[in-house]
Amino acid sequence: MAITGSGSGQPQFISSTGNRSFSNAPLIENSDTNQVVVPDRRSWKNLFAYMGPGFLVSIAYIDPGNFETDLQAGAQYKYELLWIILVASCAALVIQSMAANLGVVTGKHLAEHCRTEYPRVPNFILWIIAEIAIVACDIPEVIGTAFALNMLFNIPVWIGVLLTGLSTLILLALQQYGVRKLEFLIAFLVFTIAACFMAELGYAKPDAKEVTKGLFVPELKGNGATGLAISLLGAMVMPHNLFLHSALVLSRKIPRSVRGIKEACSFYMIESAFALSVAFLINVCVISVSGAVCNSSNLNAEDQMSCQNLDLNEASFLLRNVLGKWSSKLFGIALLASGQSSTITGTYAGQYVMQGFLDLRLEPWIRNMLTRCLAIVPSLIVAVIGGSAGAGKLIIIASMILSFELPFALVPLLKFASCKTKMGAHVNSTMISAVTWVIGTLIMAINIYYLITGFIKLLLHSHIEIVAKVFLGMIGFSGMAIYLAGIAYLVLRKNTEATHLLALTASENQQMTNEQGNGPIYSLPREDIVSMQLPQRSTPADVD
C-alpha cells in the first residue's frame, strides 16, 4: 500500500492493515524535515529532544484565569490558600504525565481514544463538553489580554477585547515554523512571566515564614474560602490540557521498543515536572505579592476597597499606587505574555479535540476564529455592560466551569491509562492507579459538594416565591442528577476497544530488529502534530 502526496503537497497518513501489534497506529509513511528525532541511545542528552510539550502545557497553569484567582486568594486570605496551589501542582504533574504516557504508548491522543471507545451519542456529548471547556478557557485569555493592553497602552477594555481577535494573524504567522519553534517561543514567554513576577516579589517583600506556613499548613477559613479554593483548582487543572498534552507528545520520532517507550515516558515526566515547577513558582509569587500588598499596614481607603474586589485591572492600579509605576508595567507585560501564549495553546487544543472526537479537520484559521468568536461575544457583552469588574467576575465563573467539567476528561484518561488492552506492558501500576483515582475522586467530590451546597444556599436565601423555589429546585437537582449520572457512566463503563500498541514486547522487538537489520526501529511522528496543522483527508486517487 503506497501513499502519494495530495494536491496541496502535504504528506498524508493512513493506517495499514497488517497483523502486527502496531500496524493500525495513525503514523506517517514519509519523514519531515521539521520533525524532532530522538537518538536511539541511552543518554541524558536525549532529554533535550523531549523538551517542549511541557512548556506548552504549563501555560494553562499561568494563564490570566489563574492570575485572577491568585490575586483574589492573596487579597482575601493572604497566604492561607497557597497549599491549594501546591496540592494542585502535584496532582497536575501526575495527571499530565498520564496524558503524555497515553500518547507515547498508543500513538493516539485522548480525544481519538474517546472516539474509538465510546458510542456516538456519549462521544458527541463529550466533544460538546470539551468545546465548552475550551471556550471557558479562552474567556480569561481574551479578558486578560484586554486588561494588559489597557495597562500598557490605556486602551479601553472593550476595544482590547476586540483587538484580541487579531491574535489569529499571529497564530497563522507562527504555524509555518512548526511545533519546535513554537515550543521555544512559549518557553521564552514562560520565563518572561517568571522574571516579571520575581521582580514583583522583590518589590512586595512578603514574609517568608508566613508564605512557608501557607504552603504546608492547610486552612479553609471564611465563607468564600471553599469557592475560591475550587476556582484555584479549576484554574490549575484544566480539561483541555489533557487532550493537548497527549497530542503534543506525538511530535517526536522515538525508538519503537520497550526501552525507547519507557525512556520517552520518563523524560516527558521530568520535562513536565520542570515546566510545572516554573508555573508553580509563578502562582506562588502572584499570591504572595497580592497577599503582601493587600495586607500592608499603610494602605489608604481607596486601595483597601480595591483589595476587596481585586481583579486583573484593579491589580494594576493597586501595584502602581503601592509599589510604583514599574511594578504595574511589569504586571502588564506578564499578563500580555500570558494571554497571548494561552491563546496559542488553547487554539491547538481545540483543533485536536475536534479532530479527535469528530474526525473533522478544519483549516487552523477557521478553527481559531470560531473559538475566539465564541469567547469574544460574552466577554465583549460583559465588558461593555459590567466594565472591568464584570469582566473580572466572568473569569471566576469560567474557572469554576472548568473545574466542574474536569471529570469528563479526567475519568476517560484514568480509565484508558489503567487499561492493559490499551497500554499493554506500560499500563499504570496498581499503586499509581490507586493514587490517581484518589486524586480524581477528591476533585470530583469537592466539585459536587460545592455545587450542591451552593445551590441550596441560593434557594434558601433568594427572595422569590415558594412555588418558584420548588420549580428551580426541581430543575437544579435534575441537572445535578444528570451530572452525576454522566460521571458514573464514564466510571462504570468497561473499556471494550483494544489499542494497537507502538511499544513492542521484547520478542516482537527482536523479531522486527531481525527483519529491519541492525538499524533502530522508530515510531514516526504524527504529521498533524509536527506541523501544528491538521492533515487534509486522503482521496481514493491518493492511495494506490
Automatic annotation (TrEMBL):
Gene behind the chain: Vigan.07G004200
Q: Which GO terms describe its biological process?
A: iron ion transmembrane transport
Q: Where are the transmembrane segments?
A: 47-62, 82-104, 124-149, 155-174, 186-204, 224-244, 265-289, 330-349, 369-388, 394-414, 435-460, 466-492
* UniProt main location, coarse: membrane
Bilayer disposition of the protein: Multi-pass membrane protein
| Cell location | Membrane
PANTHER family per the UniProt record, alphabetical: METAL TRANSPORTER NRAMP1, SOLUTE CARRIER PROTEIN FAMILY 11 MEMBER
- Keywords from the UniProt entry: Membrane, Transmembrane, Transmembrane helix
Q: Which organism is it from?
A: Vigna angularis var. angularis
Q: Which domain of life is it from?
A: Eukaryota
Q: Name one GO cellular component term.
A: plasma membrane
Protein name (Swiss-Prot/TrEMBL) = Metal transporter
Which family does the entry's similarity section mention?
A: Belongs to the NRAMP (TC 2.A.55) family.
Q: Which InterPro entries match?
A: NRAMP_fam
* GO MF annotation list: cadmium ion transmembrane transporter activity; manganese ion transmembrane transporter activity
